[in-house]
Design goal:
single chain, 128 residues, alpha/beta, four-stranded mixed beta sheet, 41% strand, globular
Length: 128
């Protein structure tokens, strides 16, 4: 068994697609119209057949209280692995990305947390 699909709830799918592709560097995998929304996924360019991230519309009534609570408590919705947290932090900050946690070393793990502009905190992480 392996993880095939994960999702993050987003306020605006088009805005999320731009952020996740143009800023974070993912590539669009699926874009299927579904009424007013889309089945919209992105993948890592390093693993185009790997785990897909669904940019899920946040319209369900349970989503907003859930996301608000996570953000208020500083809890990331998900985490993405990077080779060098400091380098990725610098690259993203230069692109105007807002971070709620700068790079932090915790033993063999280094993390940083960013705001995805779509209602979520996202952690970037590297394990030694």
């Amino acid at each position: 068994m392996r993880i095939h699909l994960s999702s993050v709830f987003v306020d605006d799918q088009e805005k999320a697609l731009r952020f996740y592709t143009e800023v974070l560097g993912f590539v669009k995998k699926h874009d299927v119209p579904l009424g007013e929304h889309r089945w919209l996924t992105v993948v890592s360019p390093e693993d185009p057949d790997g785990t897909e991230l669904l940019l899920e519309p946040s319209g369900h009534p349970a989503v907003q209280p859930y996301r608000t609570a996570l953000v208020q408590d500083g809890i990331p919705a998900t985490a993405f692995a990077v080779e060098d947290v400091q380098a990725e932090f610098d690259r993203l900050r230069d692109l105007g990305v807002t971070f709620t946690q700068e790079p932090l070393e915790m033993g063999p793990v280094t993390t940083a947390v960013l705001d995805d502009t779509c209602g979520n905190l996202i952690q970037i992480v590297h394990s030694k």
